[in-house]
Design brief:
about 80% helix; mainly alpha
């Protein structure tokens, strides 16, 4: 399996990359501002599991296809971007009802809504082509092929990355949700926060669509 020194080196590199706010952090913060702490943490779990699907894909060779195919990369990128914009527009349109949802504590918030939030986070995580290409390019660098079980080594490295990402994204989500709770004391302020959260997700979707390789 992966040697201790390689594992620690990968963990250190992952930590540096993860703590810097990126697409996942912005998405979680947007969800926290728009819908609160529970939705943010549910989104983090869904997003993390979605990202791990990409790690499994890389471990078993699919990542190389996306890394070399402009068409596949572009399709995944645009699909993820469109979904982020959709979620942002949805949050913007529902911003006026946030105060009632927070103060009323409707039952639906913990049922179907929670499952839907989870799957929305999963969809964003699994359609992030930059994450896929990153893993396809970086994971092999920390694998000791002489030890064999290359796929298992990649899965272990990916798990380390996801554990760090889960903790970091959850911290960002809780911080953003705490600020949202302060705004919740006023319907106007909460509506503003919901709108900002929606616009953040829309902006993130546009950014994802406009960036990336163009060859």
């Amino acid at each position: 399996m992966v040697s201790t020194d390689r594992l620690l080196a990968f963990a250190a590199m992952s930590f540096v990359l993860i703590v810097i706010p990126g697409p996942s952090v912005l998405f979680v913060v947007g969800r926290a501002l728009a819908q609160g702490r529970r939705a943010a943490l549910t989104t983090v779990v869904g997003n993390t599991l979605g990202a791990y699907v990409l790690i499994v894909a890389v471990a078993f060779g699919i990542g190389a296809v996306v890394e070399r195919s402009v068409l596949v990369f572009t399709v995944l990128k645009l699909a993820g971007a469109a979904y982020l914009v959709y979620l942002g527009v949805k949050a913007w349109r529902e911003r006026g009802s946030l105060h009632a949802a927070v103060t009323g504590g409707g039952a639906g918030a913990h049922g179907v809504g929670g499952r839907r939030t989870f799957w929305e986070g999963f969809a964003v995580g699994v359609t992030n082509p930059k994450t896929l290409v990153f893993f396809a390019a970086v994971l092999p660098q920390f694998v000791d092929r002489a030890q064999g079980h290359v796929a298992a080594q990649m899965l272990l490295l990916g798990l380390v990355f996801n554990v760090i990402a889960l903790a970091s994204d959850a911290a960002w989500g809780l911080l953003a949700a705490t600020a949202r709770d302060w705004f919740a004391r006023s319907p106007q302020r909460l509506s503003l926060v919901g709108g900002v959260g929606g616009l953040t997700m829309i902006g993130l979707g546009v950014t994802v669509a406009a960036t990336g390789r163009k060859d």
